[in-house]
Design brief:
single chain; about 290 residues; mainly alpha; Glycerol uptake facilitator protein; two-stranded antiparallel sheet; 11 helices; 2 strands; globular; disordered C terminus; transmembrane helix
Amino acid sequence: MAGREDGAAAGAMEEGQQDRKEVKCENSEDGSNDRSSSRCHSNDVISVQFMQKIVAEILGTYLMIFAGCAAVVVNLSTGGTVTFPGICAVWGLVVMVMIYSVGHISGAHFNPAVTIAFATCGRFPWKQVPSYVLAQVLGSTMASLTLRVVFGRGGAREHFFGTTPAGSSAQAVALEFVISFFLMFVVSGVATDNRAVGELAGLAVGATVAVNVLFAGPVTGASMNPARSLGPAIVAGRYGGVWVYVVAPVVGTVSGAWAYNLVRFTDKPLREITKTVSFLKTAHRS
């Protein structure tokens, strides 16, 4: 899930470029070039900004997983009072509100697959991917642990709120691939294209999540997000079929991001596009 990615991704890429530069060094008072007498330091502002993004990803993922999975737990433990359409609405709404809350800070990925997909398209620095993924999995695990403590016996302890395939693994992989592709295609369209109405990005992405949960939820749990599946699995110690929710969403989101870049408008002639090493880089510059 991602908010208006132009500003957030641009900031992240800017950080990545600045991080590649050598740290600034201050020579000693006598002006000598002796490296042993120099003091090197990094830009503290960049470090603070990056930590703010990490905290935003942890909190955003935490709140998203807590609300969505809480709806599942309450529905199971109270005989269906939330209802399945209600669960779909909760997932869509919490994604939407969290995008509007921290999208301008971290990009509101909340999803390792989305982060990786942005990185493959050159819209997010690879060196920051591990930190983002760790933050997202940590947020999901903390939310799952909180649910287990809050609802206790008769709730989260007895009702697994993770994702498990209802059918075959092949069916689950195919469906998770499709809904992850669908999600990332929409994210790419509303959050990375300057011609899109950026203010509606949260609404569009949230609606896509709700639609995906509505038709894929009964079959796979409609994860679309490795962190969403890993957190509950870690807390409950149930890893059956978890590989499906790691592999399929990553492949699906990467495919969705590349697919949108293939149809992204460009006024460059085909001859010029094919001369470049990367079509995605050309489309991004246009």
